[in-house]
């Protein structure tokens, strides 16, 4: 153990301390404060315990153990809980219940002391690492938003995320279009693992685990891809999304999130977690109308207008709408004008962002300018970027 750890051991009836003690660390920096016989008495004893680690020794399928874990996690979310199960730990149903209740890991009492001690050390290290990460200033989180589909949100996400990574930022890109995400296509990444696989995996959610499900892009960006099938979207809850985004903000310099059209729950969750919104629209009447409604929705949520950047794609199209008309419709001028460029669809087909494939093009310069804005703001005001402004959510909190 890297520093002193005090443990609380809850023993189900029929399991004695003599069965557990030989498996626990013997170093001077590990101490068991209490061995409590009976899981119901353990519930009461835990309330007054100063232990930094909870060990639950139980039989497979123990409902009392699941209740104890839920209570322990509810009392102290920062305190790891490890289950020592009698017999071989092969009961998948019980294993899922244990993890759902909040346990960090489960290991069999028949395992070697080395394996048990390694499991305990890993659980402690994960929680301490998460606590340490939370102590620092969280990264900027850029929510790439667009009420109407097909406006270029994914192209914007890929180009800005890659540009920030290429500039030396520890950039994370998240595809939250859970039904039809295309970030993998835009970056030529095979979806070997996605946010669906992360959501379905067992065990506690921490930085190490999230990183294990992310893909590496040649720019240096780390990418969490959307599910490969629309029917997988339901496995990704809004609370899970919030937890993942919090972890990425604690372990990155900047997080860029691609979102689906409109304001479904996962988009509201991302907005609530964000420091910046990048609203993407196109130069046509339908898109401008929807962009205006999107800006009005953000205003209703109390979102700081100064934290919103408006990107207008195909800004040089001849459709009878001038920039003065755009300003009149939106109530503000666009911040970034991205001209039409035949290299953009080609870059999407090739899976290479235009800032890489055609860096001298006007479109690439526009995206690079947007990325430079976010990079310079992060450097100039990291403290202000750390905490999203208080805002009203469109979701009913439960």
Structure description:
With 398 residues, the chain is an alpha/beta fold. The protein has 17 helices and 13 strands. An 8-stranded mixed beta sheet has the order 8-9-7-10-6-11-12-13, with helices on both faces. The chain has a 5-stranded parallel beta sheet with strand order 2-1-3-4-5, with helices on both faces. Strand 3, helix 3 and strand 4 form a beta-alpha-beta unit. Helix 2 runs parallel beside helix 3, helix 6 crosses helix 16 and helix 10 packs parallel to helix 11. The longest helix has 23 residues. The chain is elongated and about 80 Å long. The two termini are 38 Å apart. About 2% of the residues have low confidence.
List keywords for this structure.
398 residues, alpha/beta, eight-stranded mixed β-sheet, five-stranded parallel β-sheet, 17 helices, 13 strands, elongated
């Amino acid at each position: 153990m890297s520093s002193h750890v005090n443990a609380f051991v809850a023993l189900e009836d029929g399991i004695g301390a003599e069965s557990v003690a030989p498996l626990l660390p013997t170093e001077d920096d590990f101490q068991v404060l209490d061995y409590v016989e009976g899981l119901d008495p353990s519930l009461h004893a835990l309330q007054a315990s100063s232990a930094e680690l909870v060990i639950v020794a139980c039989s497979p399928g123990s409902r009392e153990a699941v209740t104890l874990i839920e209570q322990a996690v509810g009392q102290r979310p920062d305190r790891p809980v490890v289950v020592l199960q009698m017999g071989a730990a092969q009961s998948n149903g019980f294993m899922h219940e244990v993890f759902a209740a909040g346990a960090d890991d489960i290991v069999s009492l028949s395992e070697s002391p080395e394996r048990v001690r390694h499991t305990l050390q890993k659980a402690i290290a994960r929680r301490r690492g998460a606590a340490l990460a939370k102590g620092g200033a969280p990264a900027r989180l850029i929510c790439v938003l667009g009420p109407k589909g097909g406006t270029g949100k994914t192209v914007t996400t890929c180009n800005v995320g890659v540009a920030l990574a290429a500039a030396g930022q520890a950039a994370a890109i998240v595809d939250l279009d859970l039904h039809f995400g295309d970030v993998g296509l835009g970056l030529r990444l095979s979806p070997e693992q996605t946010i669906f696989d992360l959501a379905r995996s067992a065990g506690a959610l921490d930085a190490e685990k999230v990183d294990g499900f992310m893909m590496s892009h040649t720019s240096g960006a780390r990418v969490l891809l959307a599910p490969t099938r629309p029917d997988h979207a339901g496995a990704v809850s809004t609370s899970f999304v919030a937890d993942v985004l919090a972890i990425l903000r604690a372990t990155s310099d900047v997080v860029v999130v691609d979102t689906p059209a409109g304001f479904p729950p996962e988009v509201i969750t991302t907005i609530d977690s964000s420091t910046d919104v990048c609203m993407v629209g196109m130069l046509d009447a339908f898109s401008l109308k929807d962009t205006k409604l999107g800006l009005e929705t953000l205003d209703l949520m109390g979102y700081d207008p100064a934290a919103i950047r408006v990107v207008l794609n195909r800004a040089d199209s001849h459709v009878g709408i001038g920039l003065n008309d755009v300003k009149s419709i939106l109530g503000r001028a666009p911040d970034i004008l991205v001209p039409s460029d035949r290299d953009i669809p080609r870059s999407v087909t090739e899976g290479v962002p235009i800032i890489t494939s055609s860096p001298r093009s006007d479109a690439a310069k526009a995206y690079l300018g947007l990325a430079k804005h976010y990079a310079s703001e992060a450097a100039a005001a990291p403290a202000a970027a750390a905490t999203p402004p208080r805002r009203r959510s469109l979701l009913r909190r439960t």
